[in-house]
Amino acid sequence: MRHSILIPLCLGSAVALSACERGAEAEVDRAIQSVNVIDESNLNDVMLTAADPQEAVNYFRRATAEKPDRIDLQRGLAKSLIRAKSATQAVAVWARVAEHPEATNEDKVAYADALIRSGAWERAEAVLDAVPPTYETYQRYRLEAMVADSNEEWRKADSFYEVATGLTTDPSGVLNNWGYSKLSRGDYADAEQLFSEAIVHRPDLFTAKNNLVLARGAQRKYDIPVVPMDQTEQAQLMHTMALAAIKQGDVAIGRGLLREAIETHPRHFDAAVRALRALEANVAG
After folding, report:
1. pLDDT at 89 over 80
2. Are 200 and 258 members of one domain?
3. Is 249 a domain residue?
4. Per-residue pLDDT reduced to its tens digit, 233-270
5. Under a CB-based contact definition with an 8 Å cutoff, are residues 59 and 79 in contact?
6. Which residues, other chains included, contact 220 with Cβ-Cβ below 8 Å and sequence gap of 6+?
7. What is the arithmetic mean of pLDDT over 174-190?
8. Secondary structure of the chain in the HEC alphabet?
9. Residue 26 lies in a domain
10. How many structural domains does the chain have?
11. What is the per-residue pLDDT for 285?
């Protein structure tokens, strides 16, 4: 009798052990999958920031081909295409992302950004109009300001630029854009102030320095502004100021600034040399 009892007990133990082993294997599989997801997420982040843009595009193209329903991979491809200066291709990907069931307002704003980069201003405006007004971010208002600018709706543009400036810790880029908007309208004094503010926030923003010189030149202020600059930048700003002076009809001042630019530049300044030769030939002729 003891044998007959013992055999079922042994069989029961074997079944329990087998179930335990299967459970343990399942736990290991889940743990490995979790690690793989973490590793993939980290790799995605690396590809979006540190990788060569075209390398990132290739990576996300392969990933989306394997897993076409993954919105995070679609986002990665779209962002990588923007980094690779392929805005037109990015538009098509962002369109798919924006239509995805898991799409966010941030995705729609990124879609509008890609449309603006590709020159599709009306489509970008329509996309932004579809974003709820309660979604208030720096990127959204920056794009709204740019769209208003393109429509020459200056009051709206100024309002959007002002809001965007208050929604970021580094407003240098939006201040530079706002200044350029003012410059294009002929509001040179306001433009000068905005470019100066942009440089305060980011002293290495050469675009703002160059625009500042243009705004001052338009007001016939031909002295180089006191902003952080190296010798090469100083020569380049003198060249810009010279062209602004010549455009205003102050040819003698422009000629002097070109000569200063050539002398200041630490290397051969071909653009300034050519401009000076053309100016002198024109005067001689």
Report:
1. yes
2. no
3. yes
4. 999 999 999 999 999 999 999 999 999 999 999 999 99
5. no
6. 245, 248, 250
7. 97
8. CHHHHHHHHHHHHHHHHHHHHHHHHHHHHHHHHHHHHHHHHHHHHHHHHCCCHHHHHHHHHHHHHHCCCCHHHHHHHHHHHHHCCCHHHHHHHHHHHHHCCCCCHHHHHHHHHHHHHCCCHHHHHHHHHCCCCCCCCHHHHHHHHHHHHHCCCHHHHHHHHHHHHCCCCCCHHHHHHHHHHHHHHCCHHHHHHHHHHHHHHCCCCHHHHHHHHHHHHHCCCCCCCCCCCCHHHHHHHHHHHHHHHHHCCCHHHHHHHHHHHHHHCCCCCHHHHHHHHHHHHHHHC
9. no
10. 3
11. 52
**Residue that the structure tokens 């502004």 belong to:** 225
Q: Which amino acid is at 189?
A: A
Q: Give the amino acid at 63.
A: A
Q: Are residues 89 and 154 in the same domain?
A: no
Residue 28 lies in a domain: no
Q: What is the pLDDT of residue 46?
A: 80
Quote the pLDDT of residue 212: 98
The verdict on 162 and 200 lying in the same domain is yes
Q: Which residue range forms the structural domain that includes residue 170? A: 136-222
Say whether both 170 and 192 belong to one domain: yes
What tens digit of pLDDT does each residue of 161-172 get? 999 999 999 999
Q: Does some domain include residue 13?
A: no
CATH code for position 65: 1.25.40
Q: Is the pLDDT of residue 16 over 80?
A: no
